[in-house]
Design brief:
Blueprint lengths: L4 H6 L42 E5 L12 E8 L2 E10 L19 E5 L8 E6 L12 E6 L6 E9 L15 E4 L8 E6 L4 E5 L8 H7 L10 E5 L15 E9 L8 E8 L4 E8 L6 E7 L4 E5 L8 E6 L9 E5 L10 E4 L19 E5 L8 E6 L12 E6 L6 E8 L20 E4 L8 E6 L8 E8 L2 E11 H4 L11 E2 L4
Antiparallel strand pairs: 1-2, 1-28, 2-3, 4-5, 5-6, 6-7, 8-9, 9-10, 10-11, 12-13, 13-14, 14-15, 16-17, 17-18, 18-19, 20-21, 21-22, 22-23, 24-25, 25-26, 26-27
C-alpha cells in the first residue's frame, strides 16, 4: 500500500540516516592488518577530506510520480557547504537500477560507508515501499559509489531482502546504519525490515571489501551481492512473539561501543502495535549470529549512541516525543557499562535545569537525535529536535536544543536552543516550518568541531530547507551559518520536503 507524507509525519525520526566523524559514537578503526586500500570517513563522496551532506527526499515527485523519492547531495568544503556543487539522484537517474514509481519512497533512509575501500565514501539508500517480485512494499535499497568527482549512478546496484525471507509489506530498507560490528576493521551495515520483524547485517570483510571492482571486472551486468545475515528482533521484555512480528511499525538501528570492548554494538529500537509498546535491544556481534546483551522498555522515537561522559562506554539516548515521561517530550539516557546493565538512566525534558524555555504539551522534544562533539572537548554532545515548538509566537515553527556532554554525562548546563529566530541564522521562524524535524552533526569544514544541521521540511510549503550552524569551542554559533532551501538545490516545486531525512552515522 502506498502512502504519502502522512506516514512521514507519524513515524519515528530515523537516527541511522546515518555524519562525518563528528557524528560517530566511536569511529570504526582502521584495518588491523595491511589492506590494499584505505577507507575514508563516511559521506566524503569525493575523498577531499570534507564530509558531504546527503538529504533524503522520499516524498519527492519524479517524472510526475508522486512520492517516488530522490536524494540530494551538497558537497562540503573548507568554508562549509558548497551549494554550487550539488547532485540529485532518483531511480530515473542514469545508471541507477529500476525506475521511479509512485509511492516507492526512495530516500526514506540513508547511510554511508566506503564499502570497497577505494578512498571514496559510498551511499546506501532505502526505498521501503518499492514493489518487487516478492510483493507490494517488499522494499529495496540501492548503493551509489563514490568517485573523485563525487557520487555516480554508474555501476550502482540494487539490493533486496534475500529471497528466502522477502515478502509483501516487509518494507526492507526502512532504516539503515553502518559501523564495524565484528571488529575486523572493515565497516559493515545494517538494514531493517519491520514488516517481518527482521534486521540484516551486511558484511564488509576483507575478502569482500573490493566487491565493486570484482563485479565491474565481470561487466556492468554482474550483480553486486554482499554477504547478508538475518536476525529476528527479540524484544523479549515486551512479550512480543515471532507470530506478532508483523505488528512492528518501526525498527530503528544505531551503533556505538556500549560495553567498552573496543567493538561496536548494535542498538535496535522498536515500536509495536496500535497501542504501541516500545523499547530497544542491544546486540553484541562477537559471533556472526550476534546475541542480545541488554534491553529496555522505553519510548523510542529516535536513538543516538555515544560516550557523553567520556568514560569509554557509549551511552544510549532514546528520544520520546510523546508525553509518557515529561510534558512536551523527553530524552532518556541509559549509561553504558561493561555488562550493558542499563541500570542507570537520566531523563531530560524542557523543564530540566539549564534547558532553555519550558515544557509545553505537544512540542515533541526528542523526536530526532544526533550525537557529535560540538566543542571538541572529547565528550559527545546531543542535538535534540523539537519540531512542534512555538518560536517567536509562531506555532510549530520548531527548534533544536543542543545538550552538552560532561564528566557527569548529558545535562542542561550550557544547553542552547536554536531556531530560525536565533541570532545570525538566515530566514525567520514561521508557522509550521517544523525546524528540528531531523538533526545531524557533520564536520563539513573539517575543523574538528561538530556542526549542527537541522531540517525544516515544511519551509515554504512542501519545499523545505536545512540550516547549518557551526560548532566552536563555546558551542554552536549563528555566525557564518547558512540556510539552504529547495530552490537553491534545484528541487523547488517537487514536494522535496528538504530536511525530512538527513544523512548521519551512529
Amino acid at each position: 500500500m502506498k502512502t504519502g507524507v502522512t506516514r512521514a509525519l507519524a513515524v519515528s525520526a530515523i537516527t541511522a540516516m546515518g555524519a562525518g566523524l563528528a557524528g560517530v559514537a566511536h569511529a570504526s578503526p582502521l584495518p588491523k592488518a595491511a589492506a590494499p586500500l584505505k577507507a575514508v570517513q563516511p559521506y566524503d563522496f569525493n575523498g577531499d577530506g570534507h564530509p558531504d551532506l546527503a538529504l533524503g527526499n522520499p516524498y519527492g515527485t519524479v517524472s510526475g510520480h508522486a512520492n517516488a523519492g530522490f536524494v540530494t547531495i551538497v558537497y562540503g568544503s573548507s568554508s562549509g557547504l558548497n551549494t554550487s556543487k550539488k547532485q540529485v539522484f532518483s531511480q530515473d537517474s542514469s545508471g541507477v537500477p529500476g525506475a521511479a514509481e509512485a509511492g516507492d519512497h526512495f530516500g526514506y533512509s540513508i547511510t554511508s560507508m566506503d564499502y570497497d575501500r577505494d578512498g571514496y565514501a559510498d551511499l546506501l539508500i532505502g526505498a521501503p515501499d518499492e514493489d518487487t517480485t516478492a510483493g507490494t512494499d517488499a522494499g529495496s535499497e540501492t548503493i551509489l559509489w563514490g568517485s573523485p568527482s563525487g557520487l555516480t549512478g554508474s555501476g550502482s546496484d540494487a539490493i533486496a531482502e534475500p529471497s528466502s525471507y522477502a515478502g509483501a509489506g516487509h518494507r526492507f530498507g526502512y532504516a539503515l546504519t553502518a559501523g564495524d560490528l565484528d571488529g575486523d576493521g572493515y565497516t559493515d551495515w545494517v538494514d531493517t525490515s519491520p514488516g517481518d520483524g527482521y534486521f540484516w547485517t551486511f558484511s564488509s570483510a576483507p575478502s569482500t571489501a573490493q566487491a565493486k571492482a570484482q563485479v565491474r571486472a565481470q561487466g556492468e551486468t554482474a550483480r553486486f551481492s554482499p554477504p547478508a545475515r538475518p536476525h529476528r528482533l527479540r524484544a523479549k521484555k515486551s512479550g512480543i512473539t515471532a507470530a506478532a512480528a508483523s505488528s512492528f511499525s518501526a525498527l530503528t538501528p544505531a551503533i556505538g561501543d556500549v560495553n567498552g570492548d573496543n567493538k561496536l554494538d548494535l542498538v535496535v529500537g522498536w515500536v509495536s502495535g496500535a497501542d504501541p509498546k516500545s523499547g530497544f535491544d542491544v546486540w553484541d556481534f562477537t559471533s556472526p549470529e550476534g546475541s542480545v546483551v541488554g534491553e529496555a522498555i522505553t519510548r523510542v522515537d529516535s536513538l543516538a549512541v555515544a560516550d557523553f561522559d567520556g568514560d569509554g562506554y557509549a551511552d544510549i539516548a532514546a528520544g520520546g516525543a510523546d508525553e509518557s515521561a515529561g510534558t512536551g517530550g523527553h530524552v532518556t539516557v541509559f549509561k553504558g557499562d561493561a555488562n550493558v546493565s542499563l541500570a542507570s538512566s537520566t531523563t531530560i525534558t524542557q523543564d530540566s535545569s539549564g534547558v532553555p524555555g519550558a515544557a509545553v504539551t505537544g512540542d515533541k522534544f526528542g523526536y530526532a537525535l544526533s550525537a557529535g562533539d560540538v566543542n571538541k572537548d572529547g565528550k559527545y554532545d546531543l542535538a535534540v529536535g523539537v519540531p512542534y515548538r512555538t518560536v517567536s509566537s509562531q506555532s510549530h515553527a520548531g527548534e533544536a536544543v543542543v545538550l552538552y556532554g560532561s564528566a557527569s554525562g548529558l545535562t542542561g548546563t550550557g544547553a542552547q536552543a536554536v531556531s530560525q529566530s536565533y541570532p545570525d541564522v538566515p530566514g525567520a521562524a514561521e508557522k509550521n516550518d517544523q525546524f528540528g524535524w531531523a538533526v545531524t552533526m557533520l564536520n563539513v569544514n573539517a575543523d574538528a568541531y561538530g556542526d549542527l544541521i537541522a531540517g525544516a521540511p515544511n519551509e515554504n510549503g512542501t519545499d523545505g530547507a536545512v540550516s547549518l550552524l557551526k560548532g566552536t569551542a563555546t558551542g554552536v554559533t549563528g555566525s557564518g551559518s547558512a540556510t539552504i532551501g529547495a530552490s537553491t538545490l534545484g528541487v523547488s516545486g517537487k514536494h522535496a520536503l528538504v530536511g525530512l531525512r538527513l544523512g548521519r552515522n551512529g
